[in-house]
Amino acid sequence: MKKIAVIMGSDSDLPVVEKAMEQLDKYKVPYEVHVFSAHRTPVEARDFALNARSNDFGVIICAAGKAAHLAGAIAANTTLPVIGIPIKSSTLDGLDALLSTVQMPSGIPVATVAIDGAANAALLAIQILAVTDSELESLLEKERASNAESVLLKDKKISEKFNK
Ligand code: RP5
Fold this sequence. Notes:
Bound molecules: 5-O-phosphono-beta-D-ribofuranose
Oligomer: single chain
Number of strands: 5
Helix content: 40-55%
């Protein structure tokens, strides 16, 4: 199975990004975690992206806050799918990071999840690997079925309380 890379712009992003690793652990998907910054360590970020495919990665997740150029800078140097997580780490509540991550020019896509949406970033990366992995696909299907069951249970409880 291909590895998933989880890159964050700073270790201060870790409390949010950990939600991605929780999902990757749950699905037993191999991954590596790094701190690279588009602005503070641009050479290392570029080198990682250039070598990611030959280093057996299948998807790269990039989390960054403020002027969040990490996902775009990584995407510029690889044709692997890149998923961006805008991090709420400034006085602008993450809107700065959201716009910096999502507004990519044509030709260099970044699949951007919600502000602080680390769990969904991991799930999307897993779904990408599941395109060619039926075991992973069936785990995803099971999880969705169990999520649906818990929502139906909530509906039942609310219905019993209010719909007399
Ligand atoms: C971004 O700047 C990082 O991704 C982080 O969200 C933010 C603040 O970084 P630190 O100053 O806490 O290292 O590049």
